[in-house]
Known about the structure:
By secondary structure, this protein is mainly α. It has one domain (about 1-65). It is about 65% helix and about 0% strand. The chain is built from three helices and no strands. Helix 1 (about 1-10) packs across helix 2 (about 15-50). It is elongated.
Amino acid sequence: MQRFEQEADPDGRLSPQERARRAQQLKREHMQSIGKKGQSLDAWVERVVNRAGELTPENIERLRALLPPAETNTDSAA
């Protein structure tokens, strides 16, 4: 919550109650934004799965290009 309080009142001029109220609003907006991104991803995955029969190797490569790069394990003990 401290992050949102700092964002709501970077100069520390607001009363603690007003800072908390604004921070709560920023947190609520942030959580809603995360939810919308998740819904968009879910919808995209559903479209891809529903069209799986139409996928060609070329289309699969195009879809792979949209994904973030896979993380590689750089742990030397592996």
